[in-house]
């Protein structure tokens, strides 16, 4: 009888890097405790579900990638529902709830979810639960956790409504009591009441054990004299609170050590996105002075022997390894130093409770342990709460165990944000902070995400210098801090800097493309074309470029391309070009200074406007410090190019500290020059974005 009353709902996820899938799996796990059955599928598996005939409620978890695009796994689905021949009542029978994931650091926040949500509404579908939009910038869990909590009541009401429609009112009470009898998770409005009762959803520990942990932790705080919380220590009220911690994720990976004979796969075999190319690094130039705050490098790749092609404005990805010293340190802490060169076989654990468990695609069936930790797993990833929950079970010290529980609990949410998320803590930092934590290898494979290839903007033109590709980057630095005992460099930028160190030319060397280096170093790349961040198809159209710091990178490619077109097509009409560039110091980090002067002199670049944020000035009126301030000085020209002459406006660089400021400046200019209020000016800018005439290539 109970089984008959277990109601089904369809659970779909669309993921790019695994977050949406992990959240869907959490919903699937909790569903059983509520007397429900989640029929879970990746949204790409369209042969396993059919929304056209679906009668049960549908829950969708979907992320956003690129410049507001749905994830790759949702492309076919989105294309299908965007069919303009579909009638407006196509999904009139459908009830759904949608959780979108995004990052407000980027333009088009949660646009993947918004796109699907909007289209389902246009096709007549009805929401049984309000759409949730979770922001990875501040912490997905701030929206995800209460959204999941509220989901169960919303599903219950949807089922009751469904039964009433089906004329089966006699069973309504039975379904209601079935749902009510399940372990209770309070609706969003009543989250605070959960604090009153310690509830471990996996039932892994007895109440007496929990009370002991609580008392021990209080005594630890008192004895150590800690008055401020840290990664490893808590203070009241968290240290004295009853905790709500997540369910223990079921283990699903089994690792078997074999011998030391054989060959590892090539790292390029882990790439599923397209064709990879192994290309030599033929030049490396440091563009900044030694005393600059950031070190910028330009690398030149030789693509002549490949079919790799690109347009100015495109991006490409570099396959990079984890830092060799960090891999060795991790092996040592795990007690596996002697096993690094052993081949391991990774399989799904027999009898696992994880639904649809499969070996992660980024883990080879057979490779050495060192290969997995070097090329497959993002060991620098900020640990998710589910990972912290799993680490609790691997920790022997009772105080450390309690602190890890706090960090993954509702009550410790602010500590998690402060000491893990915002501090960019990684697994190594955790293992140093909690020395009694000894996770198994299978746990790392289950919880560490895929090591992602890093994306860079192309800084050259194939027309200007065939067979060559330039790109520019700052060497990312993570200084030591209370949660990180040692300073670190970025995974990819640190590796590239070390790789090309023997090649580096001093800044006095120019960027003559004919210079030859005796490099044998090669890196593996693959294309990541940008469908919109390109030069106008019509050469007579004017355009403006805003690119402070390394944000200038794609615009060097733009200008190289434009110069070559001017040389080859003397009869063409070319629109004016503007570049707004900024850096800290004119004599330390003014990137491509000589090249920009040449572009100005030969007419490729019509206007160059620069600013220097850290240089002192003796002028009566201080010059502007930032590009957004310079743009305001040329308000009439911006309005003319963008609005009257239907020109293009490109922005590249840091989002939070620059691109948003530039956007605000353009809104103010539109408002002033068109004599409209700010809201109307924002709408005009939105139409320019939609028309692909205001384009951004930004990062956080």
TrEMBL record:
The lineage of its organism: Eukaryota, Metazoa, Chordata, Craniata, Vertebrata. Its EC number is 1.16.1.8. SUPFAM superfamilies: Ferredoxin reductase-like, C-terminal NADP-linked domain, Flavoproteins, Riboflavin synthase domain-like. This is Methionine synthase reductase. GO terms for molecular function: [methionine synthase] reductase (NADPH) activity; flavin adenine dinucleotide binding; FMN binding. CDD domains: methionine_synthase_red (cd06203). Residues 274-536 form the FAD-binding FR-type domain. GO terms for biological process: cobalamin metabolic process; folic acid metabolic process; homocysteine metabolic process; methionine biosynthetic process. Residues 9-152 form the Flavodoxin-like domain. It comes from the Eukaryota. One of its GO terms (cellular component) is cytosol. Signal peptide: none annotated. It catalyses: 2 cob(II)alamin + A + 2 H2O + 2 H(+) = 2 aquacob(III)alamin + AH2.
